[in-house]
Amino acid sequence: MTEPSDPADRPDIPTETTAPPPPGYAPQGYPQNYAPGPYPGAYPPPPPAPGGYPAAPPQPYAGYGTPVPAAPKNGLGIGALILGLLSLPAVFSVVGGFVLGLLAVIIGFVGYRRARSGEATNGGMAIGGIVLGFLGIIVSAVVIAVGVWGFNKFGGQDLVDCMRRAGNDTAAQQKCQDEFRGNLEDRLSITLTPTP
What we know:
The protein is mainly alpha-helical and about 200 residues long. Among the domains are: about 75-145; about 155-190. It contains 5 helices and no strands. The protein is rod-shaped, with a radius of gyration of 43 Å.
């Protein structure tokens, strides 16, 4: 058996008389699952990912497809930490450390609750604000208690009573202040008024 010499007699060799396949069908000799691109000059498919894994599917544009996740609400945890930090130096004011510490604790608990529910990502900052707020409250209460004790120990209550009795009399008020100053100098063995 000899092969026919006419190319039209061979079905696997295309000739000029063979019509191109209709759109969407693969040419002869290609696998059936292969189809040409949707239009001439289309981009080729992406190369496979390293390691032979299939490439990730393209992500949709913003505003289309899946919704963009909401940003975490971390403001309360940050605020609690800042208020807790500020409450520590403010303990030397009369009530500043107590007020700032109380605010830090309240805001910290709300921020920690948000972190536990997944709305925020800074639960550690909220806990830090709570701890520093409690520390500010405790130290502020101790400073206030020591101040009141010291004021009473060194005759502060006597000064208050004397000033109340003096009323609007400036000479009597000055006498009360001089007695208090003399009492402090005697108890602490210091001189508060310089001698001329």
